[in-house]
């Protein structure tokens, strides 16, 4: 029996995902109709994952389904938004029912957890590529932006860095890991946890925020450029997992923490006047954010220090950037 586009949508995506009361019309019409709460702004983010660039053919389909939603929710978290709806555009070489079952399972798990409803999208035949657009709400005028950092603000990160990058290196046989560490780090690579609750708690407290998707150094530069400020980072304060520090030399561990992508932690700034409130709000967080430096007045100048001494990154280290020579060579 032929398995067409509408059969695919009906079987895997129409009935298996959570429903929300603010969706008037979801899947099945020419467009979705939704309601934005009063006195709220709508935040919209989009991410794409392509096989051979963001994941390989050995990546479990469930992990792909989870991660394509997680990376979008991480963007919403960085703006302090509450997730609400997603739309999905997926290109498939052929209908692989086993792969689609796993993919839909991963999608459903994370959508259930964060109460996101799939409200529409598109399916087509072609190279395996998945695009999700996620929508979320913030109280009017309360979105946390990249351009609000000021000299003197304290710089924080929400959790350990470099774990996903080390997991990827191990999968690509560039690093050898203890099996227990490899399982733990692979879980971080495949099933990242967007810091949604933390992002919402930062509204009215953080002066700027961004999620760490392409590496700490690559992502902080976006904040510095948007805010016209500089930063001083104490590399000896970076939060590192035991898996990272016991698997790598001290210099390599710091390099992974500064340059590896896919951790999806939040990097944010807090003014001195808000630090007391910030400490109160995050006092009972399962993973308390760590202060790693301070914002300076030297526009777009990033200083790395280890104790009282300047610290230099190895010349070959950098964050991921699409269309760069290194990205093209690695595809």
UniProtKB/TrEMBL annotation:
An example GO biological process term is: thiamine diphosphate biosynthetic process
Identify the residues that bind Mg(2+) 5: 214
Q: Which InterPro entries match?
A: PurM-like_C_dom (IPR010918), PurM-like_C_sf (IPR036676), PurM-like_N (IPR016188), PurM-like_N_sf (IPR036921), ThiL-like (IPR006283)
Residues at which Mg(2+) 1 binds? 46-47, 122
User: In the Enzyme Commission scheme, what number(s) does this protein have?
Assistant: 2.7.4.16
Q: Which SUPFAM superfamilies match?
A: PurM C-terminal domain-like, PurM N-terminal domain-like
All copies of the PurM-like N-terminal domain together span 28-138
KW Nucleotide-binding (keyword) present: yes
Output the Gene Ontology terms for molecular function: ATP binding; magnesium ion binding; thiamine-phosphate kinase activity
In terms of domain of life, where is this protein from? Bacteria
Q: Keyword Kinase: yes or no? A: yes
Q: The PurM-like C-terminal domain covers which part of the protein?
A: 150-298
Binding annotation for Mg(2+) 4 = 30, 75
**Annotated residues for binding of ATP:** 121-122, 146, 213
Keywords attached to this entry? ATP-binding, Kinase, Magnesium, Metal-binding, Nucleotide-binding, Thiamine biosynthesis, Transferase
Q: In which pathway does it act?
A: Cofactor biosynthesis; thiamine diphosphate biosynthesis; thiamine diphosphate from thiamine phosphate: step 1/1
Xref: PANTHER family: THIAMINE-MONOPHOSPHATE KINASE
The record makes one more remark, namely: Reaction mechanism of ThiL seems to utilize a direct, inline transfer of the gamma-phosphate of ATP to TMP rather than a phosphorylated enzyme intermediate.
- What job does the chain carry out? Catalyzes the ATP-dependent phosphorylation of thiamine-monophosphate (TMP) to form thiamine-pyrophosphate (TPP), the active form of vitamin B1.
Would you tell me the protein name for this molecule? Thiamine-monophosphate kinase
UniProt organism field: Pseudidiomarina gelatinasegens
The opening ranks of the lineage are: Bacteria, Pseudomonadati, Pseudomonadota, Gammaproteobacteria, Alteromonadales
């Amino acid at each position: 029996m032929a398995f067409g586009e509408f059969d695919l949508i009906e079987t895997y995506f129409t009935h298996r995902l959570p429903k929300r009361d603010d969706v008037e019309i979801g899947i099945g019409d020419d467009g979705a109709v939704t309601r934005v709460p009063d006195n709220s702004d709508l935040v919209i983010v989009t991410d794409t994952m392509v096989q051979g660039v963001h994941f390989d053919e050995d990546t479990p389909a469930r992990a792909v389904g989870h991660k394509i939603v997680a990376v979008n929710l991480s963007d919403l978290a960085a703006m302090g938004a509450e997730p609400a709806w997603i739309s999905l555009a997926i290109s498939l070489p052929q209908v692989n029912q086993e792969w689609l079952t796993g993919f839909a399972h991963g999608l459903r798990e994370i959508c259930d957890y964060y109460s996101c409803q799939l409200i529409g999208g598109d399916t087509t035949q072609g190279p395996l590529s998945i695009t999700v657009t996620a929508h979320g709400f913030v109280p009017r005028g309360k979105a946390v932006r990249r351009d609000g950092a000021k000299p003197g603000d304290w710089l924080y990160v929400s959790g350990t860095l470099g774990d996903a990058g080390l997991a990827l290196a191990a999968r690509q046989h560039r690093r050898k890991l203890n099996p227990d560490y490899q399982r733990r780090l692979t879980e971080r690579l495949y099933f990242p946890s967007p810091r949604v609750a933390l992002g919402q708690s930062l509204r009215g407290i953080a002066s700027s925020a961004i999620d760490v998707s392409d590496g700490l150094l690559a992502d902080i530069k976006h904040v510095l450029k948007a805010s016209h400020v500089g930063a001083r980072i104490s590399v000896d304060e970076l939060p590192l997992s035991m898996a990272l520090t016991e698997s790598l030399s001290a210099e390599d561990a710091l390099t992974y923490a500064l340059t590896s992508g896919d951790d999806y932690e939040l990097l944010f700034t807090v003014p001195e006047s808000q630090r007391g409130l910030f400490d109160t709000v995050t006092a009972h967080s399962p993973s308390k954010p760590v202060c790693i430096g301070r914002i300076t007045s030297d526009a777009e100048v990033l200083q790395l220090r280890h104790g009282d001494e300047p610290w230099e990154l190895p010349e070959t280290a950098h964050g991921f950037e699409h269309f760069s020579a290194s990205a093209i060579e690695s595809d």
